[in-house]
Specification:
By secondary structure, the protein is mainly alpha-helical. Helix content is 61%, strand content 10%. The protein folds into 2 domains: 94 residues, P-loop containing nucleotide triphosphate hydrolases (Rossmann fold), CATH 3.40.50; 150 residues, Ribonucleotide Reductase, subunit A. The protein has a 3-stranded antiparallel beta sheet with strand order 2-1-3. Helix 5 packs parallel to helix 7 and helix 5 runs antiparallel to helix 9. The chain starts with a strand and ends in a 14-residue tail after the last helix.
């Protein structure tokens, strides 16, 4: 499910225009039926939306599908960089699966991800992912881990993360646009969104806190960020993001550190 925007969509087969300049917006949750005589372009339009046909001109925007593609590209780029490193550092990354399954630093995030996978209410899943989990960890991984990479002298990784962060910015932009429609449609949705945020914030806070030692271990480096500064920056960032959505969430609750 996603908001679909079609702008000036055209599909021609030779001299025949099967679709000629369609403009259409389908909001999330809307049910649309296309009717018309045979040959009017119904099936061709649906084929273009589903990716079975390539438009001759115009644009189709399905925001959440594009975000999914960005996330796949993120995995591909990081996997490619890992393979490059394995050429000179044999065995690099061999313990990745074990770290995800057993390393204490990753377990709070693993818990959040696995809970997301079984959150079958689409609205709650969207709020949890795009308003809580993703903004926090996009900042932690793309920005703060980027600074960590720079502190270690890994310029390639730092630049890679900066590049990937550009996708994260527009993910927040389309989420903001979608939420503005949801709130305009029914102002009461704000209460539901805030309840969902309140439900997920503590687990996101604990997941961020899991990486405290990673930063504390390098805090003595000249450019090494301390985790206290990282946490405060993420809290400030999330509060500003939520305020821009008119969904004030307050600071992330701080978990006790052992």
């Amino acid at each position: 499910m996603a908001r679909i925007v079609i702008e000036n969509l055209v599909k021609t087969f030779g001299a025949y225009a099967a679709v000629n300049g369609i403009n259409l917006e389908i909001r999330d949750g809307e049910f649309l039926i296309m009717v018309g005589p045979s040959g009017c372009g119904k099936t061709t339009t649906l084929n273009m939306i589903s990716g079975l046909e390539v438009p001759t001109s115009g644009r189709i925007v399905i925001a959440s599908l594009l975000q999914a593609a960005d996330e796949i590209r993120r995995v591909q780029r990081l996997a490619y960089r890992m393979r490059q490193l394995q050429e000179t550092h044999e065995g690099f990354g061999a313990g990745s699966k074990a770290a995800w399954e057993r390393d204490p630093a990753w377990q709070p995030l693993r818990k959040v991800v696995e809970r997301l996978l079984v959150t079958f209410d689409w609205g709650e899943a969207l709020v949890a992912l795009n308003l809580a989990v993703k903004p926090a960890f996009d900042e932690l991984f793309m920005v703060d881990f980027g600074r960590l990479a720079a502190a270690y002298g890994d310029e390639v990784l730092q630049k890679l993360l900066v590049s990937l962060n550009e996708d994260c910015v527009w993910h927040r932009d389309w989420t903001r646009a979608l939420l503005s429609v949801v709130l305009a449609d029914d102002p009461g949705n704000r209460i539901v969104i805030q309840e969902w945020l309140g439900k997920w914030r503590p687990e996101v806070a604990a997941a961020v806190e899991g990486f405290a030692r990673t930063f504390d271990e390098v805090s003595e480096l000249p450019a090494g960020p301390s985790f206290g500064n990282v946490r405060s920056r993420i809290e400030t960032f999330l509060s500003a993001y939520w305020a821009s959505l008119e969904c004030e969430g307050g600071e992330l609750p701080r978990e006790k550190r052992t």
